[in-house]
Amino acid sequence: MDAIVLQILNGLDKGSAYALIALGLTLIFGTLGVVNFAHGALFMIGAFCAVTMQRLLSLSHTVIDPTQTDFLGNPLQTKVPYLASVFGAEGATSLIAWSVPLSIILVIPVMLFVGWAMERGLIKHFYKRPHADQILVTFGLAIVLQEIIRAVYGANPIQSPAPPMFSGSVDLGTYIGFQANAVVYPIWRLVYFGFSAIIIAAVFAFLQFTTFGMVVRAGMADRETVGMLGIDIDKRFTLMFGLAAAVAGLAGAMYAPIVSPNYHMGMDFLVLSFVVVVVGGMGSLPGAVLAGFMLGILQGFASMNEVKAILPGIDQIVIYLVAIIILLTRPRGLMGRAGVMED
Amino acid sequence: MSKSNFSRRGVLKTGAVTGAGLMLPTYLRAENHTGFTNAPTGDTVTFGFNVPQTGPYAEEGLDELRAQELAVEHLNGIGDGGMLNTFSQKNLDGTGILGKKVGFVTGDTQTKSDVARAAAQSMIQKDGCIMINGGSSSGVAVAVQGLCQDAGVIFMAGLTHSNDTTGKDRKANGFRHFFNAYMSAAALAPVLEKAYGTDRKAYHLTADYTWGWTQQESMAAATEAMGWETTQNVLTPVGAGDFSSYIAPVLNSGADILVLNHYGGDMVNSLTQAVQFGLKDKMVNGKQFEIIVPLYSELMAKGAGSNIEGVYGSMNWNWQLQDEGTKAFVKSFGEKYGFPPSNAAHTCYVQTLLYADAVARAGSFNPCAVVEALEDFEFDGMGNGQTLYRGSDHQCFKDVLVMEGVASTSGNANMVGYDTLKIVEETLRAQVEYAEDHPMFAGGALGDCNPGA
Amino acid sequence: MLGLTRKDFTLLLVVVALTLLAPIILNPFPVSSSLGQSFNAGYPALLQRFAIFGILVIGFNILFGLTGYLSFGHAAFLGVGSYAAVWMFKLLSYNIVPAILLSVIVAGLFSIVIGYVSLRRSGIYFSILTLAFAQMSYALAYSVLTPLTNGETGLQVYASDPQILAGAGAPSAPHFFGLPMASSTTLNMGGWAFTFEVGYYLCALMLIAAFYLSIRIFRSPFGMMLRAIKSNQTRMNYTGLNTKPYMLWAFIISGMYAGLAGGLLAAMDPLTGAERMYWTASGEIVVMAILGGVGTLIGPIVGSGVIKYLENIVSKINENVLHQWFGALPDPIENGLIWLVHPFVGEGWHLTLGLLFMVVVIFLPGGLVQGGQRLAALFNRKSGTVTAADRDAARQKSAE
Asked: What is the topology of this protein in the membrane according to its UniProt annotation (chain C) (predicted)?
């Protein structure tokens, strides 16, 4: 029982990341009709915003300490963060430790800008082009973005720890009647799940309850009519692109303590998130979220030793297997609309 | 057919003839000139450095490349000579090899067997390389080793830790300086016994491919021999990123040790996540829960940051060793690049020198002469003390280092990974040696050395 | 001639000439020159890959170019074909004939199954289904199916394998009834050296055959039917026509092409690994097709050639080579140029690939072939002649 609870938690956690990426993909697809293969790269850039925040906070000046020597026997050069002169050494350390949550203030403007620049600079010219061209040009962009990140940050994963307050684990089991150590779960993963839930809720609320969102939804349903009503739908859609990029970026930045950012993480997530979107049904926001959580939880269950003992290797293929089954039984995924991306 | 031989390669390629029933590649046949592939005829000899420059192991590959370039400089008499000054053999004097200057070409393996073989083929067929060196994965090493065997050039494997490289898949033209999974386990076991006792239950998470399996098999065998129990071995997909579904059940499984048979980015993630799940600070069965990472590298340690504190693992070599060879190498590498060399860099550097020395001793670039010179060759002064290239499987035997992750001693961010690993034991060579027909290495045959043409 | 129109026949002749003379054409610089060491691509291993990936993408183009169905799992057939071929080497002998035959058959069977299931959906749903099948094949081949595939190490022939048809003294490398694939002859002319290898010419002949077959398919009623499906499948269905069998045949033919390519890869180099089936390998096939020009006859060969060239030649240009190139210049200029060029070569070759790809998709939706046509048109306006490729593209346009 405790094992199942744990895997549900894991699934919710994995599912949060899938759902956030899939949500952004669907937003872009639903509003602009563009298939964005660079969305994984946006997630990756978000994660590297967290790394950048860490680097910014620890920007330092070099102090030569003649009493100590480095490994070559030269006088030791130690780096002292500029922050230390403002907040003191301890204050600087604890501030740097908070770089992941703090990076949110960096992620939002950066991602809005990246999204805006992508849409205005590139995607705009592809509205009338076939979906295949959109896939390809964004795929090319994804390669370019990831190579730039590699050139700047290297190929090694970069540790970006959660703040000390959230970095331990909590024995959840004791709250719900299990014995001690039965359901121990990292705090940051719970934070991540909560954070994702808030973002997802915010996006839905935004679309559901604001005039802006209403127009966007109308545009998703019938772009031409909305245009004829004299509404500049394009401008709103540009903003939606920025919003989707910001959602992916936030998902990436907050994910940094869970999986250390590396330059190819975007590609790793891309394929999975596309499967998620398609299983959810192209163009359906609730579908994307539902499929994200569902596949996450199924993957958790498939990784259980008891399941693997019967079906070895099932954990490596379960997502694809489920995708095939769903697409064969439900032609447009869980909640897809007819006629979308079927030609 | 023209017979003019203006160029170096022109000579090599003169008049090769197609022949039915010929068993060897003849494209670089140099009839009655030399009798082996890519015999250097001009005033240079070309090495091929085939390392991952893109993909997950790119950093490691680039570090290998740095060391290889340094080795070439030392062979050509540029710089301070590094380990040439401490090497027990004195045949190399900085004038190249057998009077020929050393040149090199580089290739990108992408850590994919197909690409690595394509790159190696290009080095052999196009650039006239006589030796291929480098690589950062066992699959690639085995693939390229097989290719070099068929083409008739020498392969000096880079970072490859699977037992198979000099076991099931050993080849006469291939040599491995790096240690292997069996040796890691043999070196770790006594230290683990001392630290954690004999009554422990180990839970293994294993990367689901050949290296992971041999690593797990070796660790299980070595720890079970001292009384530990292996409660569970769970295979995990390579590149999973998030290992939480595999780590979550560990704490409640009754095990009190977690062995992470992962490497590279997978290890960084699985260790970080295991620490997040609180494994390092729990008590199970009345004992402190512990994590073990059998194979360490500086770059992994760098990626895992403070999570490696108190975690044991093993290494082929470390820059903190205090022998003369190590000091000389660290000095020349450090002065050129500004940070210490990794153990992958060390292996590739040493192998380049060892190859050069073997050629000098043999007096010929002929692969078969080189093989003969390297087989059962005993040397010192390259770190790790007295070292032997065993003739029967081309595996190097030397002292193995047991490492423990510690808090950074210098507090310097650039040294994370380098000074966050501490040498706790230099396990003597005798302790990690095994019979060449050991079951974990059985099933392979070196075959005959192949000089190519 | 050969059942082709004169224009198509001319195109075929061009391809035949280019493939047969490739060992010469691709070695434009003297071997020992700096340019030759950097840019010559006429060595057997790479020539083989040009031909093999040409075959693969020609096959992919029959599916994607004619029907518009984007398979994102095509590498699976390549991998399956390679595994089949190596198993033939292990069980029978190093003779490539049974190996290549079986690889085509196995890939064909595999594509019947995957095609039958995947073709029940269209558009992106089809793409994701093919992707899912390929990823499952990859994951299983890498781990669980190791007894069959030898996992990460890759399937290869060991001395202990049965090889029941191999007599004593049989070649220990792939051969065609005793003629080893690796045997070759070298022609030296001044500073140039041209190597002609049996293996490459086998691939070249296969490529020519594959290309010929693809022209025939493009021009056949079957090809017309596929184009009709591409332009409007619903309408085809309304006319009472069952489009399924046509689609399935296109998928199978395309899969068999990939199987042939896989078999040839194994015949040239008898080792195969699971990563041949990974989704990035499938993505690479799509990239090659688009880069060359989808739906054109010659595009696939161009696209695969460019990518393989980048991967094998540009990735080898390291800082040392750059220093050689610019060594004659004054130091500041030399360093400046190296600083400028270095990010795009060597380990940065992916960046070049990504940029090239974006440029092509943005400015040349018809791929590099279209770029060539535009250039040709520029000259043709003066001379008044139209190339075969141009007309081919024009016909493609009108057909779409």
From this structure: Multi-pass membrane protein
pLDDT tens column, C249-281: 999 999 999 999 999 999 998 888 888 999 889
Using an 8 Å Cβ cutoff, are C117 and C189 in contact? no
CATH number assigned to the domain comprising residue C112: 1.10.3470
Which residues of chain B lie closer than 8 angstroms to A157, CB-CB?
A: 265, 268-269, 303
Q: Given this model, what pLDDT does residue C392 score? A: 52
Per-residue tokens: C3 = 């059942």
Binary contact (B118, C193; C-beta < 8 A): no
Tell me the residues of chain B between 408 and 427 that have a Cβ less than 8 Å away from chain A. Answer: 410-413, 415, 418-419
Does the beta-carbon distance from C290 to A136 stay under 8 Å?
yes
Domain limits for position C263: 6-277
List all chains that touch chain C, counting a touch as 3 or more CB pairs closer than 8 Å. Answer: A, B
Collect all residues of chain A within an 8 Å Cβ-Cβ radius of residue C351. 143-144, 147-148, 151
CB-CB contact of B418 with B410 (8 Å): no
b/e code A205-227 from CB counts within 10 Å (16+ = b) = eebeeeeebebbeebbeebeebe
Closest CA to C74 of C372, C285, C226: C285
Domain spanning B8-179+321-393: which superfamily? Response regulator (3.40.50.2300)
Of the candidates B249, B282, B334, the beta carbon closest to that of A71 is on B334
| Residue-wise pLDDT tens digits, B207-249 | 988 889 999 999 999 999 999 999 999 999 888 888 998 998 8
C-beta separation of A165 from B235 below 8 A: no
State whether A71 and B418 contact (CB < 8 Å).
Answer: yes
pLDDT band at B111 (very low <50, low <70, confident <90, very high): confident
**pLDDT number for residue C303:** 92
pLDDT value of position A343: 59
B56 compared with C212, residue with greater pLDDT: C212
Protein fold of B182-315+401-432: Rossmann fold (3.40.50)
**Rounded CA separation A91/B168 (Å):** 56
What's the distance, Cα to Cα, between the start and end of chain B in Å? 20
**Structural domain of residue A179, as residue ranges?**
2-329
Q: Are the C-beta atoms of residues B294 and B219 closer than 8 Å to each other? A: yes
Q: What is the pLDDT of residue B232?
A: 92
- Residue C399 placed within a domain: no
Mean pLDDT of B273-281: 90
pLDDT at C370: 87
What's the token pair of residue C62?
């029959």
Q: Which residues of chain A have pLDDT under 50?
A: none
Contact between residue A292 and residue A308 where contact means Cβ atoms under 8 Å apart: no
> What's the pLDDT band for B5 if we cut at 50, 70, 90?
very low
| Interface list for C 253-282 with A (CB within 8 A) | 279-280
State the number of CA atoms in the 13 A half-sphere of C54 facing the CB: 29
For residue C247, give every residue at least 6 positions away whose Cβ sits within 8 Å of its Cβ, in sequence order, or none.
C67, C69, C115, C119, C226, C229
pLDDT tens readout for residues B400-427:
999 999 988 777 777 888 989 999 999 9
Nearest residue of chain C to residue B126 (CA atoms): C43
Q: Is residue B84 pLDDT above 90, yes or no?
A: yes
Within 56-85 of A, beta carbons closer than 8 Å to B belong to: 58, 68, 70-72, 76-79
Parts of chain B belonging to CATH 3.40.50.2300: 8-179+321-393, 182-315+401-432
Q: What is the pLDDT of residue B8?
A: 38
Counting Cα atoms < 13 Å in the Cβ hemisphere of C145 gives: 17
Residues 167-226 of A with CB under 8 A from B: 167-169, 181-182, 184-186, 188-189
> Average pLDDT, stretch C131-143?
91
Q: How far apart are CA C292 and CA C298, in angstroms?
A: 8
